[in-house]
Design brief:
This protein is mostly helical. It contains 5 helices and no strands. The mean pLDDT is 81.
């Protein structure tokens, strides 16, 4: 019985990891948290297939480096905030203006969610980098 449950768990983790990985790859070129989803997908796939565990650390390092670079200067923060505001405004426009291609609240809602996710990741990155600069033990470079 326990063997069957473990098999179902590994299959579910593998399927969810594959979906997150594919969505993350798509969002690397589309607006959204692509690298974060790639990282989450690789982690879940590694839990389902232990042989993939060697890919977790390099993806995590790249994701953390990208998060740090996104808040490395005032100009980058300002640009990210402008992109987030643009995503929110575009989402509202796509939800309200029926003449736009693929108009409707499904498209508009996904743009709005992407904008909020961008703001959440921007805040998280800023807080993490600020804690690392202060030498806080809660955000060591090697542990994350």
């Amino acid at each position: 019985m326990a063997r069957g449950v473990e098999s179902i768990r590994r299959t579910a983790l593998g399927a969810l990891g594959a979906v997150l990985l594919l969505l993350g790859v798509a969002l690397l070129v589309l607006p959204g948290p692509g690298l974060l989803l790639v990282s989450a997908g690789v982690v879940l796939l590694a839990r389902a297939v232990p042989a993939l565990d060697r890919f977790v650390a390099p993806v995590r390092i790249r994701a953390m480096r990208a998060a740090e670079e996104s808040v490395s200067s005032g100009w980058r923060i300002a640009g990210s905030v402008l992109v987030g505001l643009f995503l929110l405004a575009a989402g509202v426009a796509w939800g309200l203006v029926s003449e736009l291609p693929y108009s409707g609240w499904a498209t508009g809602g996904s743009l709005i969610v992407s904008g909020f996710v961008l703001f959440a990741l921007l805040g998280w990155s800023h807080r993490r980098v600020r804690a690392a600069r202060r030498g806080s033990p809660t955000a060591p470079e090697s542990a994350r």
